[in-house]
């Protein structure tokens, strides 16, 4: 079967699909991954065909407020829709659609008759168990939790309204609003597979039957890959260090964050690894080293803790390694995942990015490294995650569609 996975956004919105795609390819399918140009090397390294999607996934502007995020998201999605059909024109028997690309992919599936399946990294359906992942990190009570979930879907409909209208016009489909199309999918009980662990988010009992939580899709990892020699030497030279990194967040704030990180590490008496990321963190010394991208699967099990922005992928990777975290959420769904880590007992109370100081970070590190309850909670979650097979469950769902 020719399978086309479509994903767009930040690195964390794309890399899980490289691992899913590689496993589907090993099962005998012809797999392509359509995403933006920045991730072409990651796609090809996984042995997948790369197809380009338009749009620049980088955040535009300096703010992280909801209104600016809405404007940014709408501009990104509209640009994405302009060339979305081109990725499918090269042929596919099945579309696997991410949270970001699903409202666009539904139009193509309708116009072409190609089968499609939604494969999400975030829980988007309203539930009484927790509020919308982008509205509030903590429960507001079951009625309000559901209300925030419904409100978030209405906001998403607004983000996609123009892109959907333009796509339907180009594809010669009858006019229909983004909201009406979403409701049509829900009424048909359209299957959605969610690629996160029930250790972090148990499947809500009030979800409709078509919504499944299957477990994580892990980024592709070359079995022959090794850590850089200087990092390996650093790891062997002393006690387990702490990794501090913000992934694709905090661009341009590297100098301030680097200073905070080093001061906090030394105040807590810990060795540290700074991951440069989009922020450009950097520092070197006997007790600290700077690295670029390295496989989480190789590095995380050798750490005392991870300080991160609480993206879904990094949060899951630290848990999978049985390592506690100090979450410092920046925006979007990160406060939600940070709160889930804390609720599990694998992290202390999250530190808001805006309120991050060396003193607060040092206190949190001292707490999470010295109190073994955090490591034990992370280890329990890791054992739970080891029983899940997100890729295998997805492969079964794909084969049911053949």
From TrEMBL:
Q: Keywords on this record?
A: Transferase
Keyword Transferase attached: yes
| Domain Glycosyltransferase family 28 N-terminal residue range list | 3-64
Keyword flag Transferase:
yes
What domain of life does the UniProt record list for this protein's source? Bacteria
From the UniProt record, which GO molecular function terms apply? hexosyltransferase activity; UDP-glycosyltransferase activity
Q: Which GO terms describe its biological process?
A: carbohydrate metabolic process; vancomycin biosynthetic process
List each copy of the Erythromycin biosynthesis protein CIII-like C-terminal domain by range. Answer: 285-388
Query: Entry's Pfam families?
Result: EryCIII-like_C (PF06722), Glyco_transf_28 (PF03033)
CDD domains named among the record's database cross-references = GT1_Gtf-like
UniProt name for this protein:
UDP-glucose--sterol glucosyltransferase
Task: Write the lineage as a comma-separated list.
Answer: Bacteria, Bacillati, Actinomycetota, Actinomycetes, Kitasatosporales
């Amino acid at each position: 079967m020719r399978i086309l996975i479509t994903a767009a956004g930040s690195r964390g919105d794309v890399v899980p699909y490289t691992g899913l795609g590689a496993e589907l390819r090993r099962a005998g399918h012809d797999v392509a991954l359509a995403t933006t140009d920045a991730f072409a090397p990651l796609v090809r390294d996984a042995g997948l065909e790369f197809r380009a999607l338009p749009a620049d996934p980088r955040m535009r502007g300096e703010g992280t407020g909801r209104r600016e995020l809405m404007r940014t998201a709408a501009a990104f999605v509209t640009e994405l829709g302009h060339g979305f059909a081109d990725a499918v024109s090269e042929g596919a028997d099945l579309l696997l659609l991410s949270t970001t690309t699903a409202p666009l992919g539904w139009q193509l599936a309708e116009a072409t008759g190609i089968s499609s399946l939604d494969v999400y990294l975030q829980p988007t359906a309203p539930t009484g168990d927790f509020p919308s992942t982008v509205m509030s990190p903590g429960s507001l009570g079951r009625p309000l939790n559901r209300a925030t979930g419904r409100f978030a879907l209405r906001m998403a409909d607004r983000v996609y309204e123009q892109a959907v209208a333009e796509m339907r016009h180009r594809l010669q489909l009858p006019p229909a609003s983004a909201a009406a199309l979403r409701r049509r999918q829900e009424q048909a009980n359209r299957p959605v597979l969610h690629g996160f662990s029930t250790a972090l988010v148990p499947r809500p009992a009030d979800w409709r039957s078509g919504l499944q939580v299957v477990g994580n899709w892990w980024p592709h990892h070359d079995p022959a890959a090794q850590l850089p020699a200087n990092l390996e030497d650093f790891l062997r030279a002393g006690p387990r260090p702490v990794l501090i990194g913000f992934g694709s967040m905090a661009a341009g704030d590297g100098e301030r964050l680097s200073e905070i990180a080093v001061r906090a590490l030394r105040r807590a008496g810990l060795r540290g690894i700074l991951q440069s990321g989009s922020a450009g963190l950097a520092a070197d010394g006997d007790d600290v080293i700077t690295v670029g991208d390295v496989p989480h699967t190789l590095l995380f099990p050798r750490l005392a803790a991870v300080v991160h922005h609480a993206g879904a992928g990094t949060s899951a990777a630290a848990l999978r390694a049985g390592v506690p975290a100090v979450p410092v959420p920046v925006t979007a769904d990160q406060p939600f995942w940070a709160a889930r880590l804390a609720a599990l007992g694998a992290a202390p109370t999250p530190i808001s990015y805006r309120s991050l100081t060396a003193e607060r970070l040092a206190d949190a590190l001292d707490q999470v490294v010295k109190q073994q309850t955090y490591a034990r909670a992370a280890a329990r979650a890791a054992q739970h995650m080891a029983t899940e097979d997100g890729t295998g469950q997805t492969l079964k769902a794909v084969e049911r569609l053949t």
